[in-house]
Amino acid sequence: MCELLGMSANVPTDIRFSFAALARRGGETGPHVDGWGISFYEGRGCRTFHDPEPSARSELAKLLRNYPIKSRIVVAHVRKANRGRVSLENTHPFSRELWGRRWTFAHNGQLKGVKRLPLTGFHPVGTTDSEHAFCWMLGQLQARWRALPKPAVLDRAVADLCAELHGRGVFNMLLTDSRSLYAHCGKRLCYLTRCAPFGTATLVDEDWRVDFAQETTERDVVTVIATQALTRDETWTDLARGDVLVLRDGGIRLVKPGQGPARTLAAPVSGPHAC
Amino acid sequence: MCELLGMSANVPTDIRFSFAALARRGGETGPHVDGWGISFYEGRGCRTFHDPEPSARSELAKLLRNYPIKSRIVVAHVRKANRGRVSLENTHPFSRELWGRRWTFAHNGQLKGVKRLPLTGFHPVGTTDSEHAFCWMLGQLQARWRALPKPAVLDRAVADLCAELHGRGVFNMLLTDSRSLYAHCGKRLCYLTRCAPFGTATLVDEDWRVDFAQETTERDVVTVIATQALTRDETWTDLARGDVLVLRDGGIRLVKPGQGPARTLAAPVSGPHAC
């Protein structure tokens, strides 16, 4: 298995605090030693850092800890390989361009027979089931529209594709088109939203404590989603299996499998303060 | 204008020496302050570092100077913007997947009316002429074959597409499919091959001197291509306008515009030693 970390915010936000916890799980506080990667979106542009080394011992991960990149969407992954050898081309997140947008995808779990799903416009560079699933999803979307559809229409289409993959095994996933961040819970994902009045938080994996009131303005809204809670003194909300969260500008909409339109969620309680 | 740097080698090779010279041209020894990027191939996998900051003052460029990545193909670029604002999505190199290969492209020069070239499977994320030209090239290749053709066939097709863009302005370009590195000379490109017996070299842009005999084995072959010579005590060979070099495993083949099959070149003299 692997672990995922995603972020959606309404202002460019520094993810280093959350990423520090995830990175330690790649060989210190967790067993995910088979590579890691992180994608930062700045508008439509995206930069991705990949390393097949364990994140807890990676020089590149250490560098990122000291290098603030402010981003409104982040997708990160630490890998424990089950299918596909340990190599750069098998290191998540994977990315492709569709409709002039840069799409990024990361997955944890195992999928049965996914390589039998037919591919059209997109093909894997590596050998993982995950990249095959990503290529299949994008091919399905490309076949349906010639240009990026409206958000609500795309939300439902992504949720339907997730439901199909959910039937094949464990499909915990993060996917973004640079506008929305989609999260599908196959087995385990949790999230929280930070907004005013901001409090403090301490990582689970090390004694790093941040007072968000010092780092933010009153209008900031930041939602973080992860396989397991990253902080020990905030309240993380578990997603149910089969749920899809759609995050835009830090706000959350929930798509339940096989149901009608997405439902906007009130942001959950986060630490000692609600928003 | 911008500057380009490419490398092809038959063994995983550390590019930091050459990249140090290029990076200084992004704001110190050259005026290319509008972002930079570098792609390293490790097998079929690729990692790219992008930064819209000037490379001479970039924290990320400094980090890479201390972080050895051994690669067989490298494409790097420092940008002086003429078309398309300074932003992450307009920062070269650009990349796409085609036929299950990761393609990477960097360009220097200006092209007239290139945005009128029709696009099919690939679309720009940013607003540069360069990314449009790249998307057009890949679309043309995709329309012609369903899977990666044999190298010699692809070489000729890439050379023909380059010739078409060459007619529209200045098209100095590096392109790779993770197997071959293509270089087209629109106005200015030069190269050298380092192989046994290895000598020493000193950068043009700073007093960094390397004795390659200490860093290599007798069988290593490394070809470096750049807009302007990077070292002051080696002999760089200028390409003629319209020439396409095809680099595989450090070896060089020259495709002259409008002529028959590619011609294998004897590697040129490099410093005090020939190979």
Descriptive notes:
2 copies of one chain form a homodimer. By secondary structure, chain A is an alpha+beta fold. Chain A has a single domain (3-264), classed as Aminohydrolase, N-terminal nucleophile (Ntn) domain (Glutamine Phosphoribosylpyrophosphate, subunit 1, domain 1). Chain A is 17% helix and 32% strand. The first copy, chain A, is built from 4 helices and 16 strands. Chain A has helices at residues 16-24, 59-65, 129-144, 151-166; strands at residues 3-14, 36-42, 45-51, 70-78, 94-98, 101-108, 172-176, 181-184, 190-195, 200-202, 209-211, 221-226, 237-238, 244-248, 251-255, 263-264. Chain A has a 7-stranded antiparallel β-sheet with strand order 3-2-4-1-12-9-13, covered by helices on one side. A 7-stranded antiparallel β-sheet of chain A has the order 5-6-7-8-14-15-16, with helices on one face. In chain A, α3 crosses α4 (151-166). The relative contact order of chain A is 0.17. The A-B interface holds A 42-52, 59-60, 63, 67, 87-91, 96-97, 99-102, 121-126 and B 42-52, 59-60, 63, 67, 87-91, 96-97, 99-102, 121-126. Chains A, B: This is Class II glutamine amidotransferase.
